Amino acid sequence: MDDQQRCEQLYRAHADRVHAYARRRSDDQTADEVVAEVFLIAWRRLDALPPDPLPWLLGVARKTLANHRRATSRAAALNARIEATLVTPTGHTGGDHAVLAALATLDPRDREVLLLIAWEGLRQEEVGAVLGVSRPAVATRLHRARKRLVEALASQDEPVLGRGEVSR
Question: Which of 20, 69, 78, 93 has its CA 20 to 30 A from that of 32?
Fold first, then answer.
């Protein structure tokens, strides 16, 4: 039996149990990702598998879930730090507060492209290099993000002054 057949047999024999293990400890999507990762690792270490592979597979699933939780926690902490930077810094006007509040409601991808242009002062080509996309893709993302920002601003209760407008 070749390696592919051995791996397929291993998957057929144990995937349901590994999925059930992961599902009891996470949501469906995460459980699916864990099963895929577990059997990828099993494929790589096929020659080192013990005679009864289920406990080993469940151990790999346990470690994979722990890694997933740590990554999720790090991402949540990063998002919290980003959102904290969107709180009105001292010295900003009410209009700035409204813009920052509207930015906080945007999808992180929209917020990122807007902040790279507006706060970091990058050109579209440079933003493309940061994001790993082409300049036309940046232009499209930027157009859509600006549209969503305008919509978010329009949905706020307090009026926002545009450039050059003076409060009375």
Answer: 78
